Amino acid sequence: MRLSNYYLPTLKEAPAEAEIISHQLMLRAGLIKQVSSGIYTWLPLGLTVYKKIEAIVREEMNNIGALEIDMPSAQPAELWQDSGRWQDYGPELLRFKDRHQRDFCIGPTHEEIVTDLLKGEVQSYKQLPITVYQIQKKFRDEIRPRFGVMRGREFLMKDAYSFHADSASLATTYQAMYQAYQQIFTRMGLDFCAVEADSGSIGGSRSHEFHVLADSGEDVIMFSDGSDFASNIESTQSLPVTTLTEPTEAMRLVDTPDTKTIAALVEKYQLPIEKTIKTLVVKAATDCDSDLIALLVRGDHELNAIKAEKHPWVASPLQMASEDDIRQAIGAGPGSLGPVNLPIPFIADETVAAMSDFGAGANIEAKHYFGINWGRDVALGEVMDIRNAKVGDSSPDGSGHLRMARGIEVGHIFQLGKKYSEAMQMTVLDEHGKAVTPYMGCYGVGVTRLVAAAIEQHHDDKGIIWPPAIAPFSLVIAPINYGKSAAVTQFADDLYQTLRDKGIPVVLDDRGKRPGVMFSELELIGIPHRVVIGDKTLADNEVEYQGRTDESSQRIATDTVLEFLLTTLNKTA
Amino acid sequence: MRLSNYYLPTLKEAPAEAEIISHQLMLRAGLIKQVSSGIYTWLPLGLTVYKKIEAIVREEMNNIGALEIDMPSAQPAELWQDSGRWQDYGPELLRFKDRHQRDFCIGPTHEEIVTDLLKGEVQSYKQLPITVYQIQKKFRDEIRPRFGVMRGREFLMKDAYSFHADSASLATTYQAMYQAYQQIFTRMGLDFCAVEADSGSIGGSRSHEFHVLADSGEDVIMFSDGSDFASNIESTQSLPVTTLTEPTEAMRLVDTPDTKTIAALVEKYQLPIEKTIKTLVVKAATDCDSDLIALLVRGDHELNAIKAEKHPWVASPLQMASEDDIRQAIGAGPGSLGPVNLPIPFIADETVAAMSDFGAGANIEAKHYFGINWGRDVALGEVMDIRNAKVGDSSPDGSGHLRMARGIEVGHIFQLGKKYSEAMQMTVLDEHGKAVTPYMGCYGVGVTRLVAAAIEQHHDDKGIIWPPAIAPFSLVIAPINYGKSAAVTQFADDLYQTLRDKGIPVVLDDRGKRPGVMFSELELIGIPHRVVIGDKTLADNEVEYQGRTDESSQRIATDTVLEFLLTTLNKTA
């Protein structure tokens, strides 16, 4: 490609609305242009990158025997009503009526369509397992699209679905998919991490997320310093960090004016934070005989909403109670709450259940009890892991301690079990001729999001540094005074043509820009290898080569430059 | 690919709703499955075919320097309001409101988005011309989706857009696109025809359609037997087929009871059909001072609605007047209408204007005038070409006579001119520093429709006959008693592996089906080349080869079969 024939609208400054570096660089390097909130046009340079990622994903899916299909974006409501998701899905599901007033949605995911597709067609266990996938634009009407294509409304996904006669077959395909995902992200040159995850509202028994590690990641990953354990903090099991001991103090009621926070309690009364309890009040589920429920976590711990929602008494999604509701039910406000004489049911975190001689609100305005002990002073009821794991906690697998990293979720695999096949009444005959409900798995990769994630991980203050496998071009020829110096022009054209003929993805910057401007732009767009051709070095029969991350350039003799480049490109391919 | 690992749900009988052969064969061969009216899932075999077509289209676009981009499906209403199409477009434009109640549509075309994209970014004529394209799913909410993917609601399109500083540059790119389209359809192995077309509601000055010739085609193409002239009947110019002569008869009022049709008039009164006139009444445009307008065509000619709509007096789209409206305005009903004493304005077709001594309704119930002559009996007013061209007419280019063929429109190229750039206020600076409005072109290919069109043209009573360039697999190995005969299994596996290693798109039918069933299925899905391996021929060290259209098979020695196949495949590639 000659840049004079290319469309590369670069920007000197990133628009103010771009908060994170990948969004800034994607706009500045002319990869995308916004059309509407969370909706982008992919320009030639950006499209080339996502097509490269798409090709890697497709190859790895084909390698494990997944079959590519293409399901429609417009999905009839009836199928979503069958699965129950027409009701369950929020406003991020884009619904519309066609000209005949029939209900449809633009599918953000295809469990219903794929189950309906194979239902009736696949009749025997002998036709299983089967894995199908597609690489397709999705629409999710995010309430607050942000970070460019990282959390956009239209995005490209690879979604795969597998069907199995038994759970062992599902586990085998799940494992193959896990390895294919590792292969995809490894080939892309990304530093990533597979973590155990909560399977969330999609249902099912087991799930892993794949995260590209980056400080700007929205997800928090807890991993062990002593084993392979890694998990999203949303679902990282928290072990109790204390062991229950015998009471040593008597319980006493203490006046605690102006002490609404744990920090104040610790500071004013010299209570160790490990001896304090936070009492959080949330709305109860409908089948609980109270309207409100209290959740108790240790003063230095954080509530984990996703864990708490799993308790049958807790309304899902978690909703904090209002101060008015709390006062009406308990007779005291937030900051004075605790388990002793609490008129509503409570759930204690496992660490809280192992505490002794601790302090908590007395459910009387501006009073706390100190020296509380379970059993003697207040009965312990429901106990459950409802807190976030913390750096330094013992790893749940028993090896080492937890550390923390931030990640960008780019892949997610699920063992769905029978949720959709059961709801949509899909059955196959097993080897005894009996109708059984197949097991399902589903497996997603965020193709366009990967472009942003790769940039978050691979950039410097000059711009993007593409990993070679997904670089839009491998090599740029940057002639100084192209079109003015006959020698430079000739040499650049010849080298360009030779490399093209060899099938190298090479680009020639024939726009005749000033060297400073040209170099800045080429660094911004992140081409891995650059050859500068100028009259000065040509006089010595040399050109200059510099890798995108090299600190300085090296001179290469013109008669060896072709061999040098082919060798260098081969090393990084 | 081993068919035992493939998903190929073939059907013995086509579902009743499939009216045309391509729809029947696509369902029977397991290429597609319907999800909703006009909405399909593409199964592995179908997807492979459309990906091959997509790859050919992409290559030819890249070859003429078009740059691939990816514009969003969800388009904000504001842009369509700017161009005026938010109002003009009918209910086939799928409109929706996002969660913030902002108006959007799912773009059936991208003139607005692409003009908005380049507006402001392209500032100088030096950056022009530029051609961008995308290959993308579109949604058009057809009132009556039919013929499978031929007229579906979701379909894959290649749409390209070009921008130019002057009309000469537009003409150059238009010509390059025309040639690229010829290249695409030629490479696909299709018998096609490029025809001049009406540019329709999209606007602009010049346009060509590309049709795959097939008897089931919805379009009628008129072409000359004496030149290269070809045109869609919608826009084929009709020359007058008579020359005005002096009156030889007096006009007379004739009682014509029960004579409501031209056929009856001809039969009962021995009037040659070339001496009769049809008077059709349609609604007038708002700036005409009548509510109704009469259109006159010769008795044996057909009205061309698209031509008539171009007259400023005629409402667009053309709407026939009701019988009540006609009786109220004229005092007589359809079947008794004519130009003499007609109280509403009329437009005469050019052939009508050249008639003499003709008959037409008298605008009195059950009466006609015979022997009418223009000028003497009634004044001739508006004259315009408003009829369909007819087989046998002189070709509009003056060489030869018109013949007719039916075609499936698979491509359409337009010189849009300034319609969108003007409406959306895009300007660039010309070489004198003056702001000018760029010229635009747009260019579409129906990728998924091409799959159906190829089948319409390439099938027999056994099934599909894929042209080699778009066949899902080039070659199938069909072993008899696979898995039972060790010799057959071994030979089939070895041949399959050898061909795969050489990169041949080969499929092995290892499902162990009975030969009759297997051969029928393989013929149905249309793989161009087949090798049958059986114990009988293996005993003679031979296998059987048969091309999909060969009348019989030929025996090939096992030690030369590889060379034979490579040579044969190479010939058709």
Automatic annotation (TrEMBL), chains A, B:
A Gene Ontology biological process annotation? prolyl-tRNA aminoacylation
> Would the keyword Transcription be found if you checked this record's keyword annotation?
no
Q: Domain Aminoacyl-transfer RNA synthetases class-II family profile, which positions?
A: 33-467
Where does this chain mainly localize? cytoplasm
Q: Which residues form the signal peptide?
A: none
- Mention any Pfam family matching this sequence: tRNA_edit
Q: Which UniProt keywords apply?
A: Aminoacyl-tRNA synthetase, ATP-binding, Cytoplasm, Ligase, Nucleotide-binding, Protein biosynthesis
Query: Which EC main class describes this enzyme?
Result: ligase
Question: PROSITE patterns per the record?
Answer: AA_TRNA_LIGASE_II
One GO MF term on file is:
proline-tRNA ligase activity
Show the catalytic activity. Answer: tRNA(Pro) + L-proline + ATP = L-prolyl-tRNA(Pro) + AMP + diphosphate
Q: Which GO terms describe its cellular component?
A: cytosol
Q: Where in the cell is it found?
A: Cytoplasm
Q: Which InterPro entries match?
A: aa-tRNA-synt_IIb, aa-tRNA-synth_II, aa-tRNA-synth_II/BPL/LPL, Anticodon-bd, Anticodon-bd_dom_sf, Pro-tRNA-ligase_IIa, Pro-tRNA-synth_IIa_bac-type, Pro-tRNA-Synthase_IIa_type1
EC number(s) given by UniProt: 6.1.1.15
> What CDD domains does this protein's entry cite?
ProRS-INS, ProRS_anticodon_short, ProRS_core_prok
| Coiled-coil positions | none
Domain statement: Consists of three domains: the N-terminal catalytic domain, the editing domain and the C-terminal anticodon-binding domain.
Subunit annotation: Homodimer.
Q: Which family does it belong to?
A: Belongs to the class-II aminoacyl-tRNA synthetase family. ProS type 1 subfamily.
Main role? Catalyzes the attachment of proline to tRNA(Pro) in a two-step reaction: proline is first activated by ATP to form Pro-AMP and then transferred to the acceptor end of tRNA(Pro). As ProRS can inadvertently accommodate and process non-cognate amino acids such as alanine and cysteine, to avoid such errors it has two additional distinct editing activities against alanine. One activity is designated as 'pretransfer' editing and involves the tRNA(Pro)-independent hydrolysis of activated Ala-AMP.
> What's the protein name?
Proline--tRNA ligase
